[in-house]
Amino acid sequence: MDCWPAPEVSENVNTDKLGNPGLTDEEEDAIVAFMKSLSGGFKVNKKAK
Fold first, then answer.
1. Can you list the pairs that 38-44 forms with residues at least 24 positions away whose Cβ atoms lie under 8 Å?
2. pLDDT for the residue 48
3. What is d(CA 27, CA 33) in angstroms, rounded to the nearest whole number?
4. List of the chain residues with pLDDT < 70
5. Residue 1 carries which DSSP code?
6. Backbone angles phi and psi of 28, in degrees to 5
7. What is the structure's pLDDT at 1?
8. How far apart are CA 43 and CA 21, in angstroms?
9. Is residue 23 within 8 Å of residue 31, measured between CB atoms?
10. CA-to-CA distance for 46 and 49, rounded, in angstroms?
11. How many angstroms separate the CA atoms of 47 and 49, rounded?
12. Confidence (pLDDT) at 27
């Protein structure tokens, strides 16, 4: 997966526990849906800088 930018500080990346968790597409979709439900209504104002 290469959709994430490189870390700003690589020293704090846990390289020992990273890897492929072996999730199915359905399991990954379920996690993404759950994470999206945690927004609390927060919206990003793309016009503000």
1. none
2. 59
3. 10
4. 1-2, 48-49
5. -
6. -65, -45
7. 54
8. 30
9. yes
10. 8
11. 7
12. 96
Give me the phi and psi of 26, to 5 degrees please. -65, -40
Token pair, residue 46, equals: 């793309």
Cα–Cα distance for residue pair 28/22, rounded to 1 Å? 10
3-state secondary structure of 49: coil
Q: Which conformational region is residue 19 in: left (phi greater than 0), alpha (psi within -120 to 50 degrees), or beta?
A: left
The 3 state secondary structure assigned to 2-48 is CCCCCCCCHHHCCCCCCCCCCCCHHHHHHHHHHHHHCCCCCCCCCCC
Residue 37 structure tokens: 């439900």
**Amino acid code (one letter) for 43:** K
